Amino acid sequence: MTETFQILIADDHPLVRGALKQSLSTELDNVTVYEAGSLFEALEQIEAHKGDIDLVLLDLHMPGMNGFTGLFTLRASYPDIPVSIVSASQELPVVRRSIEYGASAFVPKSAPVDQIGLAVKTVLDGGMWMPDWAREAMENGPADDEATGLAEKIGQLTPQQLRVLNMLTEGKLNKQIAYELDVTEATVKAHVSAILRKLSVHSRTQAVIIARELQLQEPAIDA
């Protein structure tokens, strides 16, 4: 009996989701595809199909992602579900940071259907995938110690602490964060204290500076 794979495509462009869905249907014998247009919708879909999602194809530039913060949030919330970044960005630092920050693959949106299929199959088999040019550059180039160090620090945060940090970068006050998360201000203060400790900083401003290292510029063409 052929195994059925359940894959979530999280991208805010319906045409991109449609193209990826068609690619998956072409390359995999038996696949069920779910769709989301924002990080919030992606988390909702994973929760609705808890335990069933085999892979998430994630766009870095959709609403709610806030750069790589969304990737960290997804990995912290559901560490057993592999994530493949599918992005219009093809700069080596973006590829490197995606892998450093927990993605199992990086697939350019411009990749041909067979490459998308190969990437997905590789991750479903427990491997990692990226374009040959990126792999060669990462293997032969210097290590990105800054990205590794940042990944270790941010990786210590819980999903709720990541949400609080995200809101801090938006300039929100404790009472605003408490209202949006439906918790007390005392709880928010406790989260902020834990964030400062785990990031080895002494102020909210310093924490925000670190968090902004996770930001991304929009690609010139995000198709």
UniProtKB/TrEMBL annotation:
Q: Indicate the segments forming the HTH luxR-type domain, all copies.
A: 150-215
The Response regulatory domain, residue ranges: 6-124
InterPro entries, sorted: CheY-like_superfamily (IPR011006), EvgA-like (IPR051015), NreC/VraR/RcsB-like_REC (IPR058245), Sig_transdc_resp-reg_C-effctor (IPR016032), Sig_transdc_resp-reg_receiver (IPR001789), Tscrpt_reg_LuxR_C (IPR000792)
Output one GO BP term: phosphorelay signal transduction system
Q: Does the keyword Isomerase apply?
A: no
What terms describe the molecular function in GO for this protein? DNA binding
Q: Which residues carry this modification: 4-aspartylphosphate?
A: D59
Q: Name one Pfam family in it.
A: Response_reg
Q: What is this protein called?
A: LuxR family transcriptional regulator
Question: What is the native source organism of this protein?
Answer: Thalassospira profundimaris
